[in-house]
Amino acid sequence: xxxxxxxxxxxxxxxxxxxxxxxxxxxxxxxxxxxxxxxxxxxxxxxxxxxxxxxxxxxxxxxxxxxxxxxxxxxxxxxxxxxxxxxxxxxxxxxxxxxxxxxxxxxxxxxxxxxxxxxxxxxxxxxxxxxxxxxxxxxxxxxxxxxxxxxxxxxxxxxxxxxxxxxxxxxxxxxxxxxxxxxxxxxxxxxxxxxxxxxxxxxxxxxxxxxxxxxxxxxxxxxxxxxxxxxxxxxxxxxxxxxxxxxxxxxxxxxxxxxxxxxxxxxxxxxxxxxxxxxxxxxxxxxxxxxxxxxxxxxxxxxxxxxxxxxxxxxxxxxxxxxxxxxxxxxxxxxxxxxxxxxxxxxxxxxxxxxxxxxxxxxxxxxxxxxxx
Length: 373
What we know:
- The protein has helices spanning 61-64, 102-122, 180-189, 197-214, 219-226, 234-244, 263-286, 298-318, 331-348, 362-365, and strands spanning 4-5, 11-12, 25-29, 34-40, 46-48, 56-59, 72-74, 91-93, 139-143, 146-149, 152-155, 165-167, 170-174.
- The chain is α+β, with helices and mostly antiparallel strands.
- The protein folds into two domains: 4-85, no CATH class; 91-365, no CATH class.
- Helix 2 packs across helix 4.
- The protein is globular and about 65 Å long.
């Protein structure tokens, strides 16, 4: 992630809706693909203040009415604009806004989702709706498994619970994950090093990309590294995992204990770590913390990520916070990361399934084979 600049030269950040210096409205311009200040240009219309752009824009409905978004949509030659931005258009179900606090929780989910899509576009990855020609089509459900009685949250029956997960392109996230106290309690209860909203998105989108990119294309290579996803069945593997727990030596071959549960979860956890690496390196480079790293060289990426992780972990420990990078990337994990790297770079090079936005770093745009791990 990079920082941006208001027309008044004040620094803007990815989540901003106002400039802290001049007070102008701020939004994401889909034309120049940046956070920019907005000048009013008639009722419901704004002009991007980027001198190289100047596009006519409208606010996403979830920005103008619900205040959970900060993105704009382009106004076409007829003066029309789509109702939702390039990330909100994938929402299938939103939280019940009659429940106190749900709008704030929804806003946190949307903020994490926008960062997810920024990274996907950065790598040039394909995704879209059925109308875009994608099967599976991507969609999001943000739902809760609680009801309210005198402002007290109460758990509903087993069949009415919402489970965070993925099924045929539909990513469901229980909105309690957007409650910091509940999410931290779950992290501690489950013995996890991290439990974050962006982590949920990166993990679940990994399942989507398995269906889109690995299935019917790289399945034999996948089985060689991750195991046979059909033997044992997912349900049997799930029951075994929660009955017996992970093997004692899981750190040697898996990025997390949960990754040991089933080959699909191993892929999703490894995929999420790969997105962590790309996003952290992109931010660190843009902030001037590290030199530019070629995203075509996985070995160089992991070396720099590990060095940066050591520094950030020590900084966090000085502040009494958890480690930023808890993973130790072994040779076995590196081999799995190399497979993810190859699949994603192959996808970014295929025009037939190109992402809606071709905003690629030179490494992902380069037509060169990925390095061996």
